[in-house]
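Protein folding task:
====================
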Amino acid sequence: MGGAVMSADPLHEPGMQIKMSTSRITAMTDLTNELAARFARQKVALLWSVCGLGNTIYAVIQILTWVDHQIDSSGTAPTAFDATALWYFGVACSIWIIPALLPLVTARRAAILGSLLLGSFLMVASVAGGVFDGMRDGLHIAATAIIAVALPGVYAAHASWRLLRVTEVPATLAKESDI
């Protein structure tokens, strides 16, 4: 009965603890990278959503200023906006969901690049429109566009660019839904 005791536990075999700890470290590293990538995508989506909310605030202030100018000039408020103006307002405010949605539904670099390009275009167009409208209707409109759209838009574009430059994507992220 002397001699080495054989254990049924594979962890007590020589060299097995090193293999197990290396695989656990690799698994933890993959999990950490996956969580960091998901957090970065959620951060980008949140920043583009804040930028879209800022655009909606800017649009509401612009419309209220326009209605106020109409009341001042004619003494009565216009009865209603025409269908084209309502469609434009609805589409212009709704399209802001696309840059926020793309990083959430897929980890593909093309989708993140699309989010960056579309979001940046919407931000620049809204700020340019706000500055021109502000020169015509009052500087408070330009200030609203700059503060509510440009400020979060710059941070969203920066976060999108950083997410786009991430080179190491865990294998589990590649298995997610692809659009």
Q: What stands out?
A: The helical segments are 16-74, 83-94, 97-105, 109-137, 139-164, 171-174.
